[in-house]
Task: inverse folding
């Protein structure tokens, strides 16, 4: 994929009609992870923490040298890191949604779906936390610098840039978890958690995509330049936070070698780029890909 994706601009839909459909979908099919996930189930020793092809070392010489046990251990830690980053961003998302609807008409379907999404994200946050606890994994998440940036983002980002950033972060997690949930080689808890998140996030992504398209419609050149920067900036740091550098040492590997080979892993770069095609096409369709900000996407292999 190149930086020139040439995606058509999406048609704008009615905000209230979209929210009403999404509320009806939520009423028909929502999940409670406390009861849907078997938290007491034993942990199979031969199951990967996530789809091995998503491992940052898959396809490298180091991966070929690892035993099956080492590969399983590594993917468990990588899955825990992905979940920790997801949990971090779910909390930021809830803050953003609540600030966005604070002064809006609470009788509107739009606000009611936003509040429904906050409820979903609250359950997802608990689910990610319990998954890490169940697997006896460390609490990873972003580094201190990025964690502090998250506080700034939560306090100041509003409107289109906030929805675009949230939508992009959710789609990045979604593109991984769609593979996890279908893969019988993966831990049962990881598969169930991924399935719940993917199915419920489909509504959230639809909500965010349409809101981005509405709020950017007719935006000035200056505003679009800011929107492109803020979205690319957020995507860059979310992608950089997905796999914490400590996963290798915690899995019992040579951390220096693992970091070196992961940085040059063409298989991982190609997997991210291919899986992120739909995300990048949408961002391009609303004018959020272009100019010097494409460097952020290239740096994390989405372009």
Result:
């Amino acid at each position: 994929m190149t930086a020139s994706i040439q995606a058509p601009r999406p048609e704008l839909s009615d905000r209230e009609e979209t929210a009403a459909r999404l509320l009806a979908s939520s009423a028909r099919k929502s999940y409670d992870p406390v009861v849907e996930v078997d938290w007491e189930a034993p942990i199979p020793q031969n199951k990967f923490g996530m789809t091995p092809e998503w491992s940052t070392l898959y396809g490298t010489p180091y991966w070929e040298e690892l035993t099956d046990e080492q590969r399983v251990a590594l993917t468990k830690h990588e899955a825990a890191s992905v979940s920790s980053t997801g949990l971090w961003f779910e909390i930021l998302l809830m803050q953003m949604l609540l600030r966005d609807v604070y002064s809006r008409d609470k009788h509107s379907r739009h606000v009611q779906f936003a509040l429904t999404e906050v409820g979903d994200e609250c359950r997802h946050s608990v689910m990610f936390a319990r998954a890490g606890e169940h697997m006896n994994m460390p609490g990873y998440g972003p580094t201190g610098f990025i964690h502090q940036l998250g506080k700034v983002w939560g306090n100041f980002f509003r409107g289109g840039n906030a929805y675009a950033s949230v939508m992009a972060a959710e789609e990045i997690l979604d593109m991984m978890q769609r593979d996890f949930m279908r893969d019988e080689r993966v831990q049962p808890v990881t598969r169930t958690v991924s399935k719940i998140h993917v199915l419920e996030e489909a509504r959230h992504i639809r909500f965010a995509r349409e809101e981005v398209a509405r709020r950017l419609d007719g935006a000035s050149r200056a505003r679009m330049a800011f929107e492109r920067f803020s979205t690319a900036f957020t995507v860059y740091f979310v992608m950089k936070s997905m796999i914490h550098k400590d996963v290798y040492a915690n899995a019992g590997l040579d951390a220096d070698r693992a970091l070196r080979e992961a940085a040059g892993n063409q298989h991982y770069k190609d997997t991210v780029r291919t899986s992120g095609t739909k995300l990048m096409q949408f961002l391009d369709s609303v004018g959020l890909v272009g100019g010097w900000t494409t460097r952020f996407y290239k740096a994390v292999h989405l372009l």
About this structure: The domain at 15-30+60-299 is CATH 1.10.620.20 (Ribonucleotide Reductase, subunit A). The mean pLDDT is 91. The longest helix spans residues 68-101.
